[in-house]
Amino acid sequence: MKTAGAPISWGVCEVPGWGRQLDRSQVLAEMRELGLTATELGPQGFLPPSPSRCRSLLDGYGLRAVGGFVPVVLHDPHHDPLPEVRGAMRAFRDGDVEVVVLAASTGGESYDAKPVLEARGWKTLLANLGRILKNAKEFGRTVTLHPHVGTMVENPEEVDRVLGGSAVPLCLDTGHLLIGGTDPGELVTRAAGRIAHVHLKDVDAALAERVRSGELSYTEAVKAGIYRPLGRGDVDVPGIVAGLGAAGYTGWYVMEQDVILGPGDDAGPRENVRESLAYLRGLVNGDRGDGRGGRLPGPGDPADAGDRRGEGPA
C-alpha cells in the first residue's frame, strides 16, 4: 500500500474561519515522525507556490507531494474553468505531483450549503470534465473528481450522473461519500475501475445522518467529531481496502481525518493519524503487497532512506 498524509488531518483547511491553523513546520515534522513519506499539498498558501521551492521544502522533511485538492466551478455556463485547471496541472507537472483532485465547487466559501443543479448546469459540468481530461494528457497528470459534501457532486444520484455522463476517474473519499449518502464499499464493488485515488476516512454514521437530515451543518459535524481514526467509525475500511486490492488498485491511500482545532488541540491530530496507520498495519498483516516484504511505518520506526525518495511507506 502507498500511504500518504494530508494537512487537513492537522486541521489545515481552505475554508475561512476553519479553526486554528497549525504552522506547516509542525505539520510536516509530525508527518515525518509518524513515518509518512508522502503528503497531499493542502490549501493554497500552506506550501510555497513555486513547484521547485515546494519540492525542496518537502524534501527536507523526507516527504514528496502526491496530490492536491483543486476546488473549481464546473457548472456555470458563463465561467470557463480550463485556464485555472491548466494552471494547476502545469504546477503539478513542474512539481512532480501525480494527482489533481478536482472538486465541483459551488463557488461559495464553505461546505454547508449547495444549490440544486439544473439540466443546463449538468450539461456544462460534464462537458467541462471532458475538456479537462483532454487537456490532462498534455501535462501527464492523473485528474480525478472528488465527490464532496457541499459541492455540486455530493449525493448518490450526482455520483451516478458523473459515472454515466463522463469518463473522469474518481477520488474515492470514504467519508464524504458516506456523509453524502453513498455506500463507498458498494461503489468499490461496482465501479472499482473508475477509482484512481483514495482518501481514507472513518465516519460516525449517526452524525452523518444528522448532516443529511439538515439537523447539523457539515462544519458543526466536523466540530462534533464526525471523522474518527480508522477502525473507530462505521465505514467498512477492511472491505474497501480488500475490494480495491482485488480489483488491482495501485494508487495512493491518503490518511484523512478532517478536524477543526481549538486552543490546546495540538496533540490530537498526530495521535489520530498514528492510530489510523496502526490500524492499516493490522489490515495488511505486515505484507507490502508488492512482493518486497516490509510494512507500514510504525511509531518510532527509523525512516528508510530508499522509501523516503520513492513510493511512500507500504
3D architecture notes:
This protein is an alpha/beta fold and 314 residues long. It has helices at residues 24-33, 51-60, 82-94, 119-139, 156-165, 174-180, 184-191, 205-213, 218-223, 237-246, 267-284, 305-308; strands spanning 2-4, 38-40, 64-72, 99-104, 142-145, 170-173, 195-200, 202-203, 227-228, 252-255. Helix 3 (82-94) runs parallel beside helix 4 (119-139) and helix 7 packs parallel to helix 10.
Could you describe the largest sheet, including whether it forms a barrel? 4 strands, parallel
Number of strands: 10
Indicate the overall shape. globular
Helix content: 40-55%
Unreliable parts: 286-314
Gap from first CA to last CA:
5 Å
Structural class: alpha/beta
DSSP strand content: 5-15%
* Strand arrangement across the biggest beta sheet: 1-10-7-6
Specify Rg, calculated over alpha carbons: 18 Å
Please work out how many helical segments DSSP would assign.
12
In round numbers, the mean pLDDT is 91
Could you give the order of the helices and strands?
Answer: EHEHEHEHEHEHHEEHHEHEHH
Strand-helix topology:
Blueprint: E1 2-4, H1 24-33, E2 38-40, H2 51-60, E3 64-72, H3 82-94, E4 99-104, H4 119-139, E5 142-145, H5 156-165, E6 170-173, H6 174-180, H7 184-191, E7 195-200, E8 202-203, H8 205-213, H9 218-223, E9 227-228, H10 237-246, E10 252-255, H11 267-284, H12 305-308
Parallel strand pairs: 1-10, 2-3, 3-4, 4-5, 6-7, 7-10
Antiparallel strand pairs: 8-9
